[in-house]
Structure formats: structure tokens, C-alpha cells
Amino acid sequence: MHLERRTCLNCAKPIQGRADKKFCDDYCRNNYNNQIKAYSNNMIRNINNALRKNRRILEDLLPDSEDTAKITKRHVLGRGFDFNYLTHTYTNKKGNTYFFCYDYGYLELDGDWLLLVRVRKNR
């Protein structure tokens, strides 16, 4: 019978114990899995941060008392808005497409203008 020398996938130390054991301890198992998921987690975190920032900008630019406001695209860009990140779109019966970050959105108008909108939930 030939015994194969197994090593930890994280630190390469020899492993003792069960035949299907891959890590020498919980620390190595957690570290190994966290490293594998790090890129995916960072990407998701960055996208969520961009979406939250876009929503916060739209919220700041749209007065509480209003559900719509007209503003220039340049003004929104100056605040750091990133038009590449949105949560969904909505096309109305007229064929106009609204772009949303959660409950705040915008409609591109002629020239450099945007119509900011807010969707309020019925309470």
C-alpha cells in the first residue's frame, strides 16, 4: 500500500487526518476560500458603490417636494454620476426610455438636458 503525502492547499504544510482533508486547519480553509472569492467580491462591491453613488446624486438633485426636475447632463456629470451603472430601464407607451438607479431615474431629453424622476411607492 502506497501512502500519498498530502499538503494543505493554502500553506503547503503536510496534512494528517481524513483522506479527503484539503486544509491543515480552519484558518487555511477560510484564507484559501477568501482569496478565491476576493475578485468577485471586489467587483460586486465596486458596482454596488457606483449604483449607490448614482442614486445619491439623483436624490440630492431632485427636491423632496418634487417628483421631476430638469437639469443639464453636464451638471450631473460634474457631481460624479456614472452613466454606465443603472439598475433597470422603463419604456413608456410613447417609447421614451427611462434609466433608473433604484427608485430614481432620468430621461434623456434634447440637447444636454435630463428629466430626473422619482418613483414613489404607495403607502
Helix and strand arrangement:
Elements: H1 26-61, E1 68-72, H2 73-78, E2 88-91, E3 97-101, E4 104-108, E5 113-118
Antiparallel strand pairs: 1-5, 2-3, 3-4, 4-5
> In terms of per-residue confidence, which ranges show pLDDT below 50 for 5 or more consecutive residues?
none
- Overall mean pLDDT score? 91
Please give the radius of gyration in angstroms.
25 Å
Q: Strand count, sense and closure of the main sheet?
A: 5 strands, antiparallel
Strand runs, count: 5
Helix content: 25-40%
Question: What is the strand content?
Answer: 15-25%
How many domains comprise the coordinates?
1
- Could you give the order of strands across the largest sheet? 1-5-4-3-2
Task: Quickly count the helices.
Answer: 2
Order of helices and strands: HEHEEEE
Separation of termini? Answer: 72 Å
Structural class: alpha+beta
> What characteristic shape results from the CA principal axes?
rod-shaped
What's this entry about, in short?
With 123 residues, the protein is an alpha+beta fold. 34% of the residues lie in helices and 20% in strands.
Describe this structure in words.
Helix content is 34%, strand content 20%. With 123 residues, it is of the alpha+beta class. The protein has one domain. The protein has a 5-stranded antiparallel beta sheet with strand order 1-5-4-3-2. Strand 2 and strand 3 form a beta hairpin. The longest helix is centred in the middle third of the chain and has 36 residues, at 26-61.
